């Protein structure tokens, strides 16, 4: 019974995301059609936007991605190293070492993201 509830929850989430996207596109098309009927220039819709000077906001996908990769490497390194040190301990995890390696590799991922983005901006 619980699996069915979870399945319907995910189904509802993806249905809401799809229909939001669909109605956004439908409204945009209707708006453009009305503007063209009123005599507006259609080339404005597809023209490149002018580049603004000064503060430029872009969502940091690269930084977030490298941070998550660093955290994943840290977790993997911590678990592998812990099981290499304690091979006979089934299920025993040395939490401080795993936490420390996760933070360390996450930080290294952030440093790598900083230098990668700095090089990209030049």
UniProtKB/TrEMBL annotation:
Keywords: Membrane, Transmembrane, Transmembrane helix. The chain crosses the membrane at residues 6-25, 61-85, 97-116. The keyword Transmembrane helix applies. Residues 7-118 form the DUF6249 domain. InterPro entries: DUF6249. Signal peptide: none annotated. This is DUF6249 domain-containing protein. It comes from Carboxylicivirga mesophila.
């Amino acid at each position: 019974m619980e699996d069915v509830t979870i399945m319907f929850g995910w189904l509802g989430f993806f249905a809401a995301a799809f229909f939001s996207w669909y109605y956004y596109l439908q409204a945009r098309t209707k708006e453009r059609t009305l503007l063209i009927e009123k005599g507006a220039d259609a080339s404005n819709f597809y023209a490149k936007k002018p580049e603004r000077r000064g503060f430029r906001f872009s969502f940091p996908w690269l930084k977030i991605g490298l941070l998550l990769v660093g955290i994943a490497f840290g977790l993997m390194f911590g678990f592998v190293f812990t099981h290499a040190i304690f091979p006979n301990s089934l299920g025993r995890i040395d939490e401080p070492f795993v936490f420390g390696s996760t933070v360390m590799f996450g930080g290294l991922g952030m440093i790598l993201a900083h230098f990668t983005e700095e090089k990209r901006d030049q």
